[in-house]
Design goal:
The protein is an alpha/beta fold. The chain has 2 domains: about 250 residues, Aspartate Aminotransferase, domain 2; about 110 residues, Aspartate Aminotransferase, domain 1 (Alpha-Beta Complex), CATH 3.90.1150. It is built from 11 helices and 12 strands. It has a 7-stranded mixed beta sheet with strand order 2-8-7-6-5-3-4, sandwiched between helices. It has a 3-stranded antiparallel beta sheet with strand order 9-10-12. Helix 1 runs antiparallel to helix 7 and helix 3 runs parallel beside helix 4. The two termini are about 20 Å apart. The structure holds pyridoxal-5'-phosphate. The site of pyridoxal-5'-phosphate has 12 residues, from helix 3.
Length: about 375
């Protein structure tokens, strides 16, 4: 199989990630933070080590600013539902995932908040930043914006948008689902208030693990409350981080696998991985751009303006039809449809047909890209 659906989740996972997950079951699989015996202590130490590793990788300041969640969706929900109050206004980008749009839409329907959408302009960061500024009003309390589109691969200048937010006293929450492990992210340096990310994509960890990094004094209400292994005498949820958000038995295999995924990315070099994947997509783009029967929705992948995600269609065919033929006849795995991001598709007028999305990984071979190009030409 040629797997080109790495934006959904990276596959295969590196051997050291698989080993680390297995070791968490075989060697120290007790409940972290719940017991003084050696196995529980060892499990707690492993969780702490990964927390430290994430803190360093994203320059998050203190390890307790790093909160383990079940994924980027939970991280985003925690911020959105945990800090917004009656009358607040929110600005989001035109490329947001349903993990952002749906919680906001619910709060809007409940009469709690309003929100506006700032258009992202491909290869024009100045215009994108202006569009955010133009949507601010006196009630704007939060900006939620993706670091890069999971459909069209456009990158947003989050450091500039964060600086703009701080100028206006607005908090910023960045959805780094598609960029964690792909692009450098400096939480402290860029003054990102909340960073939400997935462990199972560019960080090569297992599914079911994500992270929320909190870098400001405005601490959200927790989504869930319960056992934390700390302050057990109290009937109330602890206020301190990270325990305030980590109720229930932690996902030890996921956390260990995520730590190993970060080691893997560091050992291969994040910049090298990024350049490899971008080169893969540039070759695909070059092979298809002159073909009148292929619709490419973005400009040629550019290191400064894109991430390794390319959307396309075969003229006259639905995206589902094309992806089904790629799968059945050529054993190429690519995702079709709306990719949980209808808002992004509305910007490109593809909300009715969707797109076929191509996302390579560190394991994608250039010959796989050539096979994809030939298969699309035949289709
Ligand atoms: N945000 C974006 C941009 C995504 O691409 C995804 C997943 O595809 C998510 C959020 C949700 O991430 P998770 O699967 O970790 O909950």
């Amino acid at each position: 199989m040629i797997y080109l659906d790495n934006c959904a989740t990276t596959f295969p996972k590196p051997e050291n990630v698989i080993r680390s997950v297995c070791n968490s079951f075989r060697k120290f699989g007790a409940n972290p933070g719940r017991g003084g015996h050696n196995a529980a202590m060892e499990a707690s130490q492993q969780v702490f080590n990964v927390r430290e590793k994430i803190k360093d990788f994203f320059n998050a300041g203190e390890p307790e600013n790093v909160i383990f969640t079940s994924g980027c969706t939970e991280s985003l929900n925690t911020v959105i539902k945990g800090i917004l109050r009656q009358g607040d206004h929110v600005v989001i980008s035109s490329l947001e995932h349903n993990s952002v749009v749906r919680p906001l839409e619910r709060l809007k329907k409940e009469g709690l908040i309003t929100y506006d959408v700032a258009q992202v302009c491909e290869c024009d960061h100045d215009k994108t930043v202006d569009n955010f500024r133009n949507k601010f009003n006196d009630h704007t309390r939060l900006v939620v914006c993706t670091h890069a589109s999971n459909v069209f691969g456009l990158r947003l200048p989050i450091e500039r948008i964060a600086a703009l937010c701080h100028q206006y006293g607005i908090k910023i929450c960045v959805d780094a689902a598609q960029t964690a492990g792909v692009l450098p992210i400096d939480v402290k340096g860029d003054c990102i208030d909340y960073l939400c990310l997935s462990g199972h994509k560019g960080l090569y960890g297992p599914m079911g693990i994500g992270v929320l990094i909190i870098n400001c004094e405005e601490i959200p209400k927790p989504l869930k409350e319960g056992g934390t292994g700390s302050s057990s005498v109290s009937f109330e949820q602890p206020v301190f981080l990270p325990d305030r958000f980590e109720s229930g038995t932690p996902n030890l295999p996921g956390i260990c696998g995520l730590g190993a995924g970060i080691d893997f990315v560091k050992s291969r070099g994040m910049e090298r991985i990024f350049k490899h994947e971008m080169h893969f997509l540039s070759r695909v783009y070059n092979g298809l751009e002159k073909n009148k029967n292929i619709i490419l929705y973005t400009q040629k992948p550019d290191l400064n303006f894109h991430v390794p995600v390319l959307s396309l269609n075969v003229r006259g065919k639905s995206s589902e039809e094309t992806a089904a033929v790629l799968n059945r006849r050529y054993n190429i795995a690519a995702r079709a449809g709306l990719h949980c991001s209808p808002l992004a598709h509305i910007s490109y007028g593809t909300e009715n047909i969707g797109t076929v999305r191509i996302c390579p990984s560190v394991f994608s071979d250039y010959s796989h890209g050539d096979m994809l190009v030939n298969a699309l030409k035949k289709i």
